[in-house]
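#onboarding

Welcome to the new folks! Below is a worked example of what a typical request in this channel looks like: someone posts a single protein sequence, and someone else replies with the predicted structure as tokens. Don't worry about understanding the tokens yet, we'll cover that in week two.

Example request:
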Amino acid sequence: MSQRFQSYINGEWIAGNGSEPDENPSDLDRPVGEYGQADAVLTAQAVEAAAAAWPKWSLSTPQQRADILDAVGSEILARKEELGRLLATEEGKTLPESIGEAARAGQIFKFFAGEALRIPGEKLASTRPGVDVEITREPVGVVGIIAPWNFPLAIPAWKIAPALAYGNTVVFKPAEIVPGCAWALAEILSRAGLPAGVFNMVIGAGRVVGAAMVEHPSLDALSFTGSVPTGNGLLRQAAARGLKIQLEMGGKNPLVVLADADLDKAVECAVNGAYFSTGQRCTASSRLIVENAVYDEFAARMRKRLAQIKVGNPLEAGIDIGPVASLAQLETDLSYIKAGHEDGGELLFGGERIEIATRGHFLEPTLFAAKPEHRIAREEIFGPVAALLRADDYEHALALANDTRFGLCAGIVTNSLKHATHFKRHAQAGMVMVNLPTAGVDPHVPFGGRKGSSYGPREQGRYAVEFYTTVKTAYTAA
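Example response:
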């Protein structure tokens, strides 16, 4: 064990109760470290510390908050290779992807450093003479943040940075399988000049830490990214006590390929969207919907391209896909591969575990020819498994694309301006990509979906102000 990762509460590092190993999914014999488990008592202490720090922090100057966030962003960018290596080791992304994620986290903090100086407001004319009306935005209060394991630097960054920028205090619960990345981010924040209690991190099981956080009466808002069942449970709890909540809960994203598409481009969009980051992205294009006229040719090209994909240790040069992040996720992926066979899908490529020099959770990129009713075409898998669906024409492809309870992202590959324009308007998704992979959203634009994918205001960019602030209307008589 190389390092012990601790929680951070009220300006102090707390060991927690007992310890759990921090697994390296590429080399199970060489764990990253270990972490101490926070419990309900420590979680309550973190919320109470944030509540005590909020009155003063909420009235801090925008310049103070901007300077702190800018310093955090600068340090992350300066250390992006180091942080990227930690991320690749702990979560399993390839090293280039991991360094890119670290850089994105730094850019997010710098973006919100600027937003701290641009908090919007309005002055309106009243309908009554001699009366002024001001509309201002104020911080919500104590914000709980529950982040997933698939983007262990970027997603916490795009929640923590706006929360602090707008004057809120934070209690952050990272996913248990990526405590090292969470600790590294918290360690940078701990040295950035934040007063004690403004930022807190508790590492522990969601059923313990998450539950204690949501139930605490001093929590004012909760931002969650994770599974649909957990998100729906949190929504019911939040509704029962009037807690402001923001949920991101995944997707079953379509990539439509029309007959007029550049098939080389379509294949690259499909491979990138469906399999990079080991398919462990909520924006992954796990449903490839291809017009009948080019279906067979597209399938053949996909087989050839997937045969070129190199799966292995993400720290090695030339590797395209690293391991699945955990044994639990690997078992989920394999269960869906089994379901693909049981439902009558045709396995076009992959479907097997891979053995390399080190013990790890390696899986072949997998492609099934499937039908819309198959489980692999309807349920989010969150792994390198995609379903290929046949469409009669554009209208049929659009109907298939929208035939899902999710609505996060949708893509289309076509040379038709008419169809691209129509798809952008009629795809039932919060984000639409034309001739691009579905995965990959800039940090300064809103992120979020429709239907079962999202609930509440959008994340990222200027739209983050909607969740992390509350609006006040003030009248003044002359």
